[in-house]
Write a structure and sequence with these properties.
The structure holds two protein chains of two kinds. Chain A is an all-alpha fold. In chain A, about 70% of the residues lie in helices and about 0% in strands. Chain A has two domains: about 80 residues, Helicase, Ruva Protein, domain 3 (Orthogonal Bundle), CATH 1.10.8; about 45 residues. In chain A, helix 2 packs antiparallel against helix 3. Chain A is elongated, with a radius of gyration of 27 Å. About 5% of the residues of chain A have low confidence. Chain B has one domain: Glutaredoxin. The chains are: A mainly alpha, B alpha/beta.
Chain lengths: ~150, ~180
């Protein structure tokens, strides 16, 4: 068995690795306003890196992610565009897939609605099982009662 | 149907769904650019100091192949493109993505040049406009300059025979129909 302190040090070690790697991937850009910086930081967490598909732009050090981060910065700071137009720019080129938070529309209906459909199905099934169990318990009870009285 | 069969059939359904999922390629992201006009660019050619922009090819179907000398699967695809260019007259434009002119020229010298026009995109800026995320990528444009198809990843004999050639034939028919 490992001691508590072994676990703790392992945890600290893992976390520190993660911290350094996360810092190493992000280049620093100058911003004119706080709003721009906030928009930039939000966008690089919301946009997907298409090369390494399960990472966002902030986490990825792929060349494309670097280029796209630069593009986001250029659009926000040099071209003074707002967050929505950057998102539109990316979606126009890479599709909804570039968004980690895809919009609700016909094509994504299953994506958004699917979990609720399964939830309802699950409740329906649960309800059926419970009522059935109740019925069998009732009949069993009756059976035992009647045998008691005999 | 017997009650005991319900979990089994649910499981079978799940297996079928997951099996279909396994055959899909997650790298095949549907491009939102299909059906839209080709992205504009004006880039310097590799072999001359003049610029090229896609509007020059209006009136004919054409192919844009995005490649780089550092890209391994481009090498794999290249022989096929060279052969294709010998057998077909469709204009192929090569977009040299995030590369240096020296390396690009050396590469074309070694492996052959299937491109009628080669342009340079050293910073990858035009690449972003074309939604490029993994070279090689190949776009097919019709005579009106509309993007009709995109191949992500290297072209294969199979893709050329079953997808590219029929599409080019169709585009050629569309063009003659308009002219006639």
């Amino acid at each position: 068995m490992f001691s508590k302190s072994t676990y703790l040090s392992a945890l600290v070690l893992t976390l520190s690795c993660w911290l350094t790697s996360a810092q190493a991937t992000i280049e620093t850009y100058p911003f004119d306003t706080v709003q721009q910086e906030q928009d930039y930081n939000n966008l690089i967490y919301e946009l997907r890196c298409l090369v390494c598909q399960n990472q966002n732009l902030a986490d990825s050090n792929a060349e494309l992610a670097q280029d796209l981060r630069k593009q986001v910065h250029t659009m926000l700071v040099e071209q003074k565009q707002d967050k929505a137009s950057v998102v539109k720019y990316m979606v126009d080129r890479y599709g909804d897939f570039v968004l980690y938070n895809p919009p609700v529309k016909f094509q994504t209906f299953l994506l958004w609605g699917g979990p609720f459909v399964f939830l309802i199905l699950g409740f329906w099934w649960l309800f059926k099982i419970i009522t059935q169990a109740g019925k069998t318990a009732n009949t069993n009870n009756k059976a035992t009662h009647s045998s008691d009285t005999e | 149907m017997k009650k005991q069969m319900i979990p089994l059939s649910l499981f079978a359904g799940l297996v079928i769904f997951l099996a279909i999922g396994l055959t899909l390629d997650p790298k095949e992201v549907p491009s939102p650019l299909i059906g839209k006009p080709a992205a504009k660019f004006s880039l310097e050619r590799l072999y001359s100091e003049t610029a090229f922009s896609p509007s020059e090819l209006k009136g004919q179907p054409w192919i844009l192949n995005i490649w780089a000398s550092w890209c391994v699967s481009c090498r794999q695809e290249h022989k096929l493109l060279v052969n294709f260019s010998k057998q077909n007259s469709t204009t192929i434009v090569g977009l040299n993505y995030k590369d240096t002119p020296e390396e690009a020229k050396a590469w074309l010298k070694e492996l052959g040049n299937p491109y009628q026009i080669t342009v340079q995109d050293p910073k990858g800026r035009a690449g972003i406009d074309w939604g490029v995320y993994g070279v090689p990528e190949t776009f097919i444009m019709d005579a009106n300059g509309i993007i009709r198809h995109k191949f992500t990843g290297p072209l294969t004999k199979d893709r050329v025979k079953n997808q590219l050639l029929p599409l080019l034939k169709q585009l050629e028919n569309e063009r003659t129909a308009v002219q006639g």
